[in-house]
Amino acid sequence: MQPPGITADITHRRPWEGRPAAQQPEWQDHAVHHEACRTLESAPPLVPAAEIRQLRWSLADLLATDALLLQLGDCAESLYECTPRHTAQKLQVIDRLGNRLSELAGRRVIRVGRMGGQFAKPRSQPTENHGALVIPSFRGHMINSELAGPRTRQPDPRRMVWAYEASTVVQRAMRAHRRGGGRRPTADGPWSSHEALVVDYESRLVRRDPDTDEPYLGSTHLPWVGERTRQPGQAHVAMLSAVVNPVGCKIGPTASADDVLRVCEALDPRREPGRLVLIPRMGHHRIQQALPPIVRAVANAGHPVVWLGDPMHGNTVKSGLGLKTRHLTDVIAEALHFRDILEGLRQHAAGLHIEVAADDVTECIGGPVENEEGLQRHYTTLCDPRLNADQATELIEAWARGTRTSRA
Ligand code: PEP
Ligand code: CO
User: Fold this and answer.
1) Does residue 81 have a known ligand-binding role?
2) Is the pTM here over 0.90, yes or no?
3) What is its EC number (predicted)?
């Protein structure tokens, strides 16, 4: 028997199955894996189709009106920070930054959190060294533990169910927040988003919209494919091609214009406004060279994409003390280059995708964190270094000021 909300053909016809999928965990316990997949298949979707349609309309409207988009949150969510209290704190930061941007730019700002499912991380290295010990890398709480040991780093399929359950708590709090938003319309969010990385997890949460019968990804409003998993023809892109959600795609500095056109064709074959969000993350040294030919090609091909700058992921450096960090000056430089390039090519620079913590962390250098020594005060990220809210405010103010000047 099919669980409610799943029709036989969506569970049996999965166009991504059998395709290569990069960055997948090597689950060990097959019986437990099977059980976890069954649990997810029969669970209710985390977000309803109607909300996904609403976000698509909002993004289409953004393109029509030159409104703005702000996507922000942790690099990796923690399973231990999904309580209503933690979520309220994160939503407060989203409100603060979204309101500041809206006030300075004088425009509507649609808000999207990297939350309610951001539990899986792609890694450049599959293992890391701890003294003489070589252990698997941390891959996010959906897969393994950040604690450094050979056993704690084994992928555990039960974690997919724990991530689902934690996400239900976060999504419930976000929904209540959207409805109680006061003067701000519900359509402006905050909506949820995460990198759709673990194909086992995501594919079990594909559902059919009861009103239109179309398949949608019920794990989040706005899933994205990362720089390491955006190959057309492979599982991640095939999966997001098969659902009607708005979808994001990261673009790193080595992507060619042809690479990007191919992924646009796969994700947005009908050239629908509000469907595709392209997120360049090139690095402040490389963006001026790498981005313009891509923007020109996408515009010429007629894809009405939302352009969102990620000034974080191309600017990660190792500090002298061995901690991963980012310099706020580099982050601001890339954000401003991004906006200038888009505006120079008469395209809409819709906003920023940034990693920001709800706590007052010291993970990036800039503002109150003056130097590398300052990083050690409160460095708690599970993965990449995040801005604190003050540093993110400085970035947003620089962005909004530049927008004004360039239009004056
Ligand atoms: C991320 O957003 O945390 C991430 C891993 O990004 P990218 O795919 O751009 O490296
Ligand atoms: Co990150």
Assistant:
1) no
2) yes
3) 2.5.1.54
Q: Which atom of ligand 1 is nearest to the CA of 229?
A: 8
281 is in an annotated binding site: yes
Distance in Å, CA 224 to ligand 2 centroid:
13
The CA distance from 3 to 43, in Å, is 8
Pairing state of beta strands 215-217 and 317-318? unpaired
**If you average pLDDT over every residue of the chain, what do you get?**
94
- Domain spans of the chain, in order of start: 44-124+157-406
* Residue 346, Cβ density class (10 Å: 0-12 exposed, 13-18 middle, ≥19 buried): exposed
Rounded-to-integer distance, Cα 249 and Cα 272, Å: 15
Class of domain 44-124+157-406 (CATH, top level): alpha beta
Q: Is the CB of 45 under 6 A from ligand 1?
A: no
pLDDT of residue 14 exceeding 80? yes
Q: Which ligand is nearest to the CA of 120?
A: 1
Q: Which ligand has the minimum distance to the alpha carbon of residue 324?
A: 2
Q: How many other C-beta atoms lie within 10 A of the C-beta of residue 271?
A: 14
Amino acid at 153: R
Mutational pocket test of ligand 1: of 119, 138, 195, the residue with most ligand atoms within 8 Å of the beta carbon: 195
Atom of ligand 1 nearest to the CA of 226: 8
pLDDT class for 57, splitting at 50, 70, 90?
very high
Question: Which residues touch 357 (CB under 8 Å, ≥6 apart)?
Answer: 74, 93, 363, 380, 381, 386, 387, 388, 389
Token couple for 48: 């309803």
